[in-house]
Request: fold
Amino acid sequence: MRKRHLTRVVGLFAAGALLLAACGDADDNGADDESVDAGEETVEDEAEEADPDDDGSGEAGAAVEDADFEVYALLPQGNDQPYGTTYLPPMEAAAEELGIALTITNSQYDADTQASDCEVAVAAQPDGIILWPAVGDTVRPCLQAANDAGIPVTITNSDVNEEDRDLTRGYSGPDTYGQGVASAELMCEFADGQDLGIIMINGLTGNSTAIDRENGFEDTINEQCSNVEILARQPGNWNADESQIAASEMITAVGAPNIQGVYAADDTMVAGAIDALRSRDIDPTELIITSIGNTFLGNPLVIDGELDGTVFQSSSWDGENAVTLMHEVLTEDPQDRLVRFMPDVKVTVDNAEDEDVAPEW
Amino acid sequence: MSSQAPAPTTPHPSPARAEDEPEATPFKLSAWLSTQGIVIFTIALVLFAVVFVDGFASLPNLTDVFNRAAPIGIVAAGMTFVVISGNYLDLSVVAQVATAAVVLIAVTNAVGLLPAILLAIAIALVYGLVNGVAVGVFKANAVIVTLSTTFIGLGLLRWLTGGSIYFGDSDGPIRTFGTTRIGPLPLSMVLFVVVTILLSLVFTRTNFGFMVRAYGSNREATRLAGVNTPAVVIGAFTMSALGAMLGGFVLAAFSNTAVSSMSDGYDFRALAAIIVGGTSVFGGRGSVMRTLLGVVFVSVLTNIMVLTGLGFGFQQMAIGLLIVLAVSVDALARKTRSS
Amino acid sequence: MSATESTSPAGEQTPASDGLIERGRRILSRRTEGRAVGLLMVVWVFTLLFEPLVWTSYEVTLGRIALVGLVALGLTAVILMGELDLAVASTLAVAGVIMASFDNLLLGVIAALATGLLVGAVNAFFVVIVGINSFIATLGMLFFLRGAAFVISGEQPVRIADVDAGIAFGQPVIGPLTPRMLIFIVAFVALYIFLSHIRVGREFYAVGGNRQAARDAGIPVTRRVFTGFMISGFISALAGVVNTLERTAADPTAGSTVLLASFAAAIIGGVLLNGGRGSVFGTLIGASALGMLQVALTLSGVQVDVQNIVIGGVLLLAVITDPASLRAATVTARSLMQGRAAQQDTGGVRLFAHRHPRWGPHVHRTREMTRCASDT
Reply:
């Protein structure tokens, strides 16, 4: 299946090289060769690598030669982000096991690109569409179009708005708002009634996950522990280096003695913030620091006692369940909307070394 | 040979630029004026911050300013050569910075520091060569060439690495580089200054730097003077690639992590710094030192806004406004002087 | 005579005695869309053979072309005058956010479009009145307007007041054509007529080709530049309105891929970045080639990173295999072999004019021609 597609790409390249070269009285040159080589080499390697896929389970009556179902997965990230990198392999593995041929797109959080990908997907008439909304507010037309075409849609990673849910057959993934809530609960617990001034480092400005987590955290702080006060906030763009500089600048702005805590919307950024504290000779263990992720970067910090608490997000759970949920919809046709929340496990020094919260990304 | 090369003035100024660069103003005077413009702006901004912004004039904060400036500044210093050669910008620095950062950390972890650096240098040379040959020999448009190499470069990086995030050893050489201080100054800041001075010397004191300027001012005349113009273009893109590589090293060392999306936006941010510094986007006019000033200006500005608690939206608005204002004042001053 | 040729009056000297084929060949060789046509044909062959769905679901393909191409059309008007508009994507975002902030849809649309015109006028003000380079002015606006979109929206997506109207807007109205495609077609036809058949529009080429000469010839350059930037601002805002309506919400981060895709479409379509040469027809072909390639690659199911490598490779091949690029490479190769002495004897201007007779004997334009060659 994949090999056939790859042949097409190689075909495109060969045709492109021939036709474009025919445009002029060409003689060859270094750059020309180089670019063609790079492309072809890549594609061929991929073809080799993809070979084992052809041995996948093949059954009669399927939409394509060797899969029971053809499913489009419209994602806003992939190998360009650490989370997407570890989300994809379990997703692809689950799909292969269940006989689902996946076509994956990556809109890089551009809602218009994703909408256009959605039109392409609907036109291809697959058995189902798995959607990870780039921007939650913008997906209704896509859901409507898929519904009109009779294609079931399931949502992964971040759920659509309340009023759009009747157009979808299910959701699996973390409760992104709930993650903010859980991190705030940890903060409240550690603060234990004392007055606490904290700085807040958020994700990429305008990004839905960043918005949900920020709201979840802030709402919970306001409701449950008004003794915690957010003194300053800046985006860290999911990046350790930008977070480090922003944290350091906020320390300057607020004054180090006034800060007793730090919240960052993910572990990569909290690592940057902890570096910022260290480089100013502030002992991070003396501050109350919470975050979200429990990643390879965050987990050791929890064990060292520098990061007081984080919320486990399993990218493999997320990727795998996106496919298994769709498979359930396709095979069992349930009447109700299926919802599978990733458990929001709070990770502190007490359970950081447990097997079931082993970091994944 | 270079003595016969044309002076970097424009005998037949392109009409599109007639207003920007009145012929009546000699090249050196206008260069001096625009450098002064950004110097005055930067000094004014720093003075304003020292007086009105609490905590600005403290050592940790100045370290933050330079931490902000170092990676983008090194990238911009290299890219200045491409801009001055009249080739607009090098969009592929986005891919180059990410590749250098990932190679530095991933290969150091797997093999060692030296192979990582050598591989990164080799990759930078390939970028310089591919971009330079396509633009210099095939005379293809630099914007579209570097856009394609960005697609190819990022695609290859993500496809070959699977896109993972890489962490350096917590006590490895990269971490040491990132945390070492010389006196009170972080090593990255020292590196930033040294690289800028080196690139500036290449720019002002070597034949190559002279030819880049000459080529940016008047391609045809430079070619007629017997200059190997494709080599000049390849050289300019190679300087940009080496700058992007060093910028990637500094970025990776600073946080001890590398991921392929860490350099998003470096293309236009570097260009903004170059332009604010007073380098002409149509080539010929400008210098590496001006880029240094531009980078410092933008970093100080961002720093002030974070210190005063302004949100991201306001930061972007202010940066945009100041780019236009800084250059407007300069343009109006020159207009008045020439008339 | 075609609008694309306004700056090459020498082309009119073609003797009438030439054979029809020879004349046809010359007309073709004067066109600037060759590379785009080549690329489009490759994509056609490829899709016909391997992804016929690109053709059978043509409404989807058209939608993608309209998405890639609309902003590129407005950009073309500015680039023809030798200026640049880097603010298109930010204009798109801010227009969408402003539109969604109004409770009344119609008022919102009017406000958004007016914003686009205003942005264009401000850009033009800085470029022709203050006298700063358009690259810088619009780079400043790129940051400023993006920031404004965040500030106005409160850094969150804004849903439009009437979601149902938005969904209805995404539905086909004539045959399979949705309002987006109709708007794209109308914008294309209007700009095509404007730039090739209306004097004001044809003067854009003169402004981009040689501004001083245009001024000497009595063309109101300042007004033309204002018109050009306002067209670009208006069309970007229109794209923002269309996107926001279709998505039922405005996103302050919208348009992240628009700027570079529009530039790619225009440049592939043969529009010269230094002005004076190109056509909206070329931009249309460029956008079509890119849009179809994207749809085909999505359907192919190849891994996204490999798709990007393919798109980058095709773009790079397209620019370096352009006839002018290959000629330039041949000249370089030849001069390397013959040594530089010979080159100096020839006298460069003469050499250049000799190699490209169609550019005519205007020696004072040599510099632009060098640029021409470098930008194809």
About this structure: Chain A has eleven helices and twelve strands. Chain A has a mean pLDDT of 82.
